[in-house]
Amino acid sequence: MSSSWTPDESPETLLAEKGWLQGTVVSAIAYGIDVALYFMCFNLLFRQMNRTNYKKHMPLLIYITSVFIFSTLFMAALANFTQLAFIQYRNYPGGPNAFEINMFGIPVDNLGNACGLITMILSDGLVVWRCMVIYRGCMVPMWAIMLFPGLMYAASIVMGIMWMLQVTTASPYFSSTNINYTVPYLSLSLALNIIITIVIVLRLLTYRHRICNVLGPGYGTQYTSIAAMIIESAALYSAFSVALLSLFLIGNPISATFIEALTQVQIIAMLLIVFRVAQGKAGLRSPSPR
Predict the structure, then answer these.
(1) Nearest to 167 by CA among 182, 146, 184
(2) In the chain, which residue ranges form alpha helices assigned H by DSSP?
(3) 179: helix, coil or strand?
């Protein structure tokens, strides 16, 4: 094709715009997976619900439905903002990249940022709650086990709120500071998921060791399988976050692709856990070495 059709923009600007547009496409693909997983989880949980277990299943149904609604609003806001930049206001001075930078705080983008923050907080909350359930009945006091993860979760929420305020407000405090809250917020969320995954897996492997010592090596495979499922789910979000942070820290514009898809990828990891719970393969209750 003729190079005369290329916009009069620098290669770096064009690369940033490509990363943004491709991120919207990747996010839409991930959202499609979210839709499929949500209805699979909802169907399994709803069919299993009866008068005796509705108190166990109803909170999960409300939880996944809330997350799904926020993820849908996030995807709608992202699609609309992309449409504004690339179609409706494509002649904006500096192109879509300049539009994104200068119009980052318009209402539709604020909606997407808020919904993305809420879904990530809810997804991290499920991981923390899962750890509490797995360690229920442990000889070590629960407060001692959950103190550090709880503080990390609280810190990630605070950093998330600070990030949200930074991208949506014109306050002199945020405009004058050199701190970019994106990195500490995402780093805390990543570290929280990795640490809690390790803690849960250690608990499950401890049960497996005890079972094998008493009954033989063939009786602890269920704990190994559950541990593998948890690691697989956590690895998806962790690998994506590491790639995002690495690209973001070196200033690579392709990081925009990962930023926009991160919310939906985290929801996929969360729904995979819920789906396995609904199948009875990864219970959200304390394992009992029977």
Answers:
(1) 182
(2) 11-48, 54-83, 95-102, 107-134, 142-168, 172-176, 182-215, 221-249, 255-279
(3) coil
| CA 281 to centroid of chain Cα atoms | 22
- Please give the radius of gyration of the chain, using alpha carbons only, rounded to the nearest integer: 22
Tokens linked to 102: 């200068």
Query: Residue with structure tokens 């995954």?
Result: 197
228-282: per-residue pLDDT in tens? 777 777 788 888 888 888 888 888 888 888 988 999 999 998 898 888 877 765 5
Count of Cβ atoms closer than 10 Å to residue 136 Cβ: 12
Q: Is 51 helix (H, G, I), strand (E, B) or coil?
A: coil
- Sign of the alpha-carbon torsion through 79, 84, 90, 92: negative
d(CA 227, CA 234): 11
Helix axes 182-215, 107-134, angle to 10 degrees: 20
